Amino acid sequence: MVNKQSIGVGLLGLGVVGGGVAGVLAGRAKALSEQVGCPLILRKVKVMESDLSRPQVKELGAQLFTTDDEEFFTQPDIDIVVEAIGGEEPALDYLKRALAGGRHVVTSNKEVIAKHGAELFTLAQEHGVGLHYEASVGGGIPLISPFQQDLVANKISGIYGIINGTTNYILTRMAGEGIDFPSALKSAQELGYAEADPKNDIEGIDSTYKLAILASLAFHLQVRPQDIHCEGISRLSSRDFKYARELGYAIKLLSIAKEKDSRIEVRVHPVFIPENSLLAEVDGVYNAILVEGDLVGKVLFYGEGAGASATSSAVVADVVSAARDIVIGSGTRANWRLEPGKSIRPMAELETGYYLRLNAADQPGVLAKVSRVLGDHRISIASVIQKAVDPVAQTAEIVIMTHPAKEAEMQKALKELDKMDVVKEIENFIRVEE
Amino acid sequence: MVNKQSIGVGLLGLGVVGGGVAGVLAGRAKALSEQVGCPLILRKVKVMESDLSRPQVKELGAQLFTTDDEEFFTQPDIDIVVEAIGGEEPALDYLKRALAGGRHVVTSNKEVIAKHGAELFTLAQEHGVGLHYEASVGGGIPLISPFQQDLVANKISGIYGIINGTTNYILTRMAGEGIDFPSALKSAQELGYAEADPKNDIEGIDSTYKLAILASLAFHLQVRPQDIHCEGISRLSSRDFKYARELGYAIKLLSIAKEKDSRIEVRVHPVFIPENSLLAEVDGVYNAILVEGDLVGKVLFYGEGAGASATSSAVVADVVSAARDIVIGSGTRANWRLEPGKSIRPMAELETGYYLRLNAADQPGVLAKVSRVLGDHRISIASVIQKAVDPVAQTAEIVIMTHPAKEAEMQKALKELDKMDVVKEIENFIRVEE
Fold first, then answer.
1. How confident is the model at residue B390 (pLDDT cuts 50, 70, 90)?
2. Which residue of B has its CA nearest to A322?
3. Set A210, A252, A258, A387: catalytic member
4. Domain encompassing residue A261
């Protein structure tokens, strides 16, 4: 036991997360001090010039704040640095500086951990300090600590996550109201659930950061965001939801990681999932992550995936955890264990079912021609819906559900279908996860 | 850092859980040793005479086993004792002996922790060792560690759990097939989901142990099983499920703990919950626990609540956690933090809605008389279903849903209703949780 009178905390950033964390540390000081064994004291907050006018600065006392990096990093008695800036730079630089200075670090920064985790964990190890990042995925839902602690006895076989609240909100609106993507996005933006520039969320990029973190932890292989096959939700239309419902499915943007024979499959894209599955029931901005382990079976974690309060819950829990480690005199814990012999499985080797929606000429023999192309690539059809849609243009919509087939073959088939005269357009193609 | 060559484990019991744990420790030795930093070695297993014929004894080597308490407790080099016997005695005695001997303890024993947790935690603290009990509630679902770690920054306001798989299986069968309790129980027994003597499960006793543990952790008050109002599921009939469905509800055995103004409400009983709520979707032997915190909002944990594998997942995770603490040289962690000024709220003060099913005379004015009794106790009716059921006996079934009312008043009203000539029988009365 280290006889500490108090534990000093330094905070980088006073935005949504930083402001929330500062509020919890100040407002809940007594309970937190009982959890830790000594007081947690916020000693310095590094902010931007524009933050200095925030009411919280006045509340907490102006002397606590600085806009100067040097002043922050030379402040004595800071044991734990909380980074709540987000984005790659200057956050990465700050994290390295804090770790190299022997400070324990708590961060909610998914992008930095996903892209630079390996380097940062090595640095933490070298300096005998902890690097905590529970808030980087799933807001306040415990997700990192289950992998580091509760599920360690398991061989994890799969992770299936709804880990982006913005896209899940948009998909929920599209499914519930039959509206198209642009209106659902507009509504999400008006409600503050989507940003003015929504690219990171709707194109799945945010999800790749989070999946990279979870998959690295679960499968003991360094998974980088660029290793993950990524497709967003912008090409989904109300017709896809209509057919999904007819066929007994929901459409969700899933982040999937699976291991088979030491090869890890990692992908983020819209999927058809059975409408009675647990993940299909996850609506609105909520997040849920289903984990499959050989001992534990299926476990699901569900909750708010973002927001100032939920994220503060995870950040402050990490601060308490780091502080307890300091009090008991323990340094870093091994929490980024890599196993040799593992590799990423190329997307071309994926085997799954597919939903295919084509706009085709409404004439006899079209379905036979389409089936032949699929058959040539060993893709067998499970069910077909064919509907005349435009009597003037004489086009029909053909919806095909396939049995599991190879992704590489499906991609070849799609190219061939695209070249066929009778196929006017491949309107969508969505993978099925049973 | 303590330079340990290996960590010794002693195991008490070789039943479902013990056998599972022994299997995982042996079968996954390499991965576990990487997690811990040195090998975890099973050094002695205390079994009953009758266990010696089990195939596992031969597999692991007969010299590892003993039927003698003295031999087990004097075995050198045991750092961690795993108790997998279950029941109150001799498990309690063994746990005390292990803790007093300076061994870290891991247990899956909900009864001992619920009844004797306070004493055992004190003993662990005195001897500088850890007492780990993740497997005591919810099988492999992380539930203890979230309260000890991930949710520490929160003020918890409520816990709502389906924490007994046997009863949830029975209720799922009753809801799905319209069968009555005795047939559903029989079927659960045939499938091994219910014991030959099912009392502990179906009367809610098992749930009170688990709720006592969760509520103590969440609300920092020692909640004992006898503090918990407990009703089982045996008085539910297929008619209750029929009406529940008509009214838009599911029936679940919920374990509920809520805090309001430092008073903790703890109860286990069947409830009507809205059919589209998350907990209503939890079917079969699965468990789910919904936790409400002021920062995190609602988080839900779902998975298999029992079974050799799932329970081993939690026990072995606790062993790894204890072993890491030994390796880093840390002793016990404060994990049973009590706050002064808290108390149990008497059941009489509960305010909730009620479902009431009466068998009454099928004659004019009966409903008016029943309403008057309820009104006298300030219980207002939200909706009524009245159906003639027996033209010969001239009886009708009256189903009443009330607005939230005081439990004490409802109990008085039930007594008065019971005495009325026109009321043949109060067939059931179930609380509603919106």
1. confident
2. B149
3. A210
4. 146-304
Nearest to A141 by CA among B398, B298, B71, B66: B298
Q: Are B163 and B137 in contact (CB under 8 A)?
A: yes
User: Are the beta carbons of A113 and A133 closer than 8 angstroms?
Assistant: yes
Q: What is d(CA A183, CA A200) in angstroms, rounded to the nearest whole number?
A: 18
Q: Please write the tens of the pLDDT for every residue from B66-110.
A: 999 999 999 999 999 999 999 999 999 999 999 999 999 999 999
Nearest CA distance, B146 vs chain A (angstrom): 7
One domain for residues B60 and B182: no
Q: Which of A299, A301, A302, A327 to mutate to test the interface with B (most CBs of B within 10 A)?
A: A299
Q: A119 in a domain, yes or no? A: yes
Tell whether B232 is covered by a domain: yes
- Residue ranges in chain A whose pLDDT is less than 70: 1-3, 331-335
The complex scores an ipTM of 0.94
Pairing of strands A286-293, A7-12: unpaired
The continuous run of DSSP H or E covering B41 comes out as strand B40-46
* Contact predicate B322/B38, CB 8 Å: no
Residue B333 lies in a domain: no
From the CA of A423, how many Å to the nearest CA of chain B?
42
CATH number at residue B404: 3.30.70.260
* The token pair that represents B258 in the structure block: 């809520």
What is the pLDDT confidence band of residue B330, given thresholds at 50, 70 and 90? confident
* Phi, psi (deg, nearest 5) at residue B384: -135, 140
Largest Cα–Cα distance in chain A? 84
CB distance A46 to A13 below 8 Å: yes
| % of chain B surpassing 70 pLDDT | 98
Same domain, A151 and A271: yes
Known catalytic membership, residue A424: no
Question: What's the pLDDT tens digit per position in B191-202?
Answer: 999 999 999 999
